[in-house]
Design goal:
By secondary structure, the protein is of the alpha/beta class. The chain has 14 helices and twelve strands. Strands 1-7-6-5-4-2-3 form a seven-stranded mixed β-sheet, with helices on both faces. Bound molecules: pyridoxal-5'-phosphate.
Length: 387
């Protein structure tokens, strides 16, 4: 082809540009972004082993999957276009009509409503337990029908702690798979457990800078292969540029997580002693009902603190969030900037009043994701309203 160039006209030249030669060993230190939707095929290798089309696989995305599998101590990982795609892809990839899934009311709201509203349309049944009734897990299993137990340890929004070892032990006894959404606890935690599928919203701590949406599933090669096929069907693909940004964000992941955790601990300690704060929920506080279990399962208690303000402060949680000045009223978490939002408004619309009150969600509860600002400035902002 190259020898034909001199005979080509301009449109042909422009559409088949010369390739920059890179000598063996003269590799870029940072992996390039492969923005190609398709790849030319070599006759020297099996087509199965080659990159073909970026909906199926892409070198930049593969790089990210390899990094994520390694830090989570899993055989393989697939990256998808959002945390929600990773969750719905897992459920649709593993379950079929007639199957049964067990989950808990203390999970991310769209995951809960997907199970309740969408899976039911495909005759996939569910049981939703309360985390405090974990002892009912075994009796909820329908032998031969229950295929998956899905949960969060360090739950959204009120930071309850699930006993991971116990859930796995029960699941194994009945040959049921376990998927865990580890978004709140971060990518580096709970890796000591034999969870079949570890799911994360990379939108949060993984990327860490609040500028992309993505998700991942890590686990055994054979399971990931099945889910990869579902991801390809759903077209829940991430683009190479997004993969690159997450890979770049991961380089400072541990620094960010540890710093945000230590700041969250300080903020939680401030809130806990404040008389205008009714309840502070943070697993790093010794008063937290899951504190001992959290210490057993996790090294870092995370960057999210939930609390309930005294009604004398503000009309409701939304007004409180709007009135803060450094801390921004927004959703999401795990970003560099501190973010706060009312929990009832955003995370509980599908729950009944008794579930909400048992879970400690009401018009005065908020969820704060502590960012990388100096903790003294975050506390000063809270103090400006709390007094
Ligand atoms: C945000 C979040 C998700 C969904 O992730 P997206 O990337 O927004 O789709 C899932 N689970 C938990 C616990 C989350 O916080």
């Amino acid at each position: 082809m190259e020898q034909d160039r001199k005979n080509w006209q301009i449109n042909t030249q422009l559409n088949h540009p010369k390739k920059v030669e890179i000598l063996d060993g003269n590799r870029p230190l940072i992996q390039p972004i492969y923005l190609s939707a398709k790849f030319t095929l070599s006759e020297d290798h099996s087509y199965m082993d080659q990159f073909l089309y970026s909906r199926l696989s892409n070198p930049t995305t593969r790089q990210l999957e390899m990094s994520l599998a390694e830090i989570q101590k899993k055989e393989d990982c697939i990256v998808m276009s959002s945390g929600m795609a990773a969750l719905s892809g897992t459920f649709l990839g593993l379950l079929k009509a007639g199957d049964h899934i067990i989950t808990f009311r203390e999970i991310y709201k769209p995951a809960r409503t997907f199970i309740k509203d969408v899976l039911t349309r495909y005759q996939i049944e569910h049981t939703i337990l309360a985390l405090k009734d974990l002892s009912m897990l075994e009796s909820a299993i329908r032998d031969g029908k229950t295929k998956l137990i899905h949960f969060e340890s360090l739950t959204n929004p009120n930071l309850e702690i699930a006993d991971v070892e116990y859930i796995i032990k029960v699941a194994r006894r009945h040959g049921v798979l376990v998927s865990m959404d580890g978004t709140f606890a971060g990518l580096h935690q709970h890796t000591q457990f034999d969870v079949d599928l570890m799911i994360h919203s990379l939108t949060k701590f993984g990327n860490g800078h609040g500028d992309v949406i993505a998700g991942s599933i890590a686990g055994k090669k054979s399971l990931i292969q099945e889910l990869r096929q579902m991801g390809v069907y759903l077209g829940a693909t991430i683009d190479a540029h997004t993969s690159y940004l997450i890979e770049r964000g991961l380089k400072t992941y541990m620094l960010r997580f540890e710093r945000q955790t230590s700041s969250a601990q300080k903020v939680a300690e401030f809130l806990q002693t404040h008389k205008k704060v009714k309840i502070t929920r943070y697993p790093g506080l010794s008063q937290h009902p899951g504190h001992e279990l959290a210490k057993k399962q996790m090294k870092d208690m995370g960057a999210v603190v939930s609390f309930e303000i005294d009604p004398s402060i503000c009309k409701d949680a939304a007004e409180f969030c709007h009135k803060l000045s450094l801390i921004q009223f927004s959703v999401s978490l795990g970003s560099t900037e501190s973010i706060i939002c009312p929990t009832e408004l955003f995370f509980a619309a599908d729950l009944g009043s008794s579930d909400k009150s048992e879970m400690g969600i009401n018009p005065y509860t908020v969820r704060l994701s502590v960012g990388l600002e100096d903790p003294e400035d975050i506390i000063k902002d809270l103090r400006s309203l709390l007094g």
